[in-house]
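Before the break, one more example. Copy the sequence into your notebook; we will annotate it together after we see the structure.
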Amino acid sequence: MLRKLFLLLYYGFAYHLPDSYLPLIGKPCNALRIFCCRRIFRKCGNIDTINRHAYFGNGAGVEIGDHSGIGANCRVPHNIVIGRDVMMAPEVLIFRGNHRFSDPDIPMIRQGDEEASPVVIGDDVWIGQRAILTPGRRIADGTVVAAGAVVTKDFPPYSVIGGNPARLLKSRKT
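Here is what the structure looks like once it is written out:
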């Protein structure tokens, strides 16, 4: 019951407050959003930022590690695992599922949804603005996801990835 109350407080009020980085009032707005999320998420470390309009569904399965944040206007699924030291820029979209479409004799709207695969983001990850992560992705430790990248497969740790579809641009480890 308490979780539902904080969901109502978050989406009804804190969600709409000004940007976390706005001078003078940004920090208190961010603090209120974090206060709510600590009571909504399954696991919530000592997080840095939950920026305005961050959407995470009912938040029941969200796990987020220390010193991580969710950028403004991000949409993350309610069953995501976000590691430590993760930077998520504004407008990142992370999808949790997809529609079935395998039978052309049945309208797609009637085929239902595929099994929801959770997205797992490792530690020390930077996800650039407007990046898109498809269902079931595992973003390895130390990865940089370039702005606008569409991630449709997994990459090794310490990768720098970008493009549509995302490809390996270089490794951070030489």
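Helices lie at 2-12, 26-40. The longest helix spans residues 26-40. Try to locate both features in your own notes.
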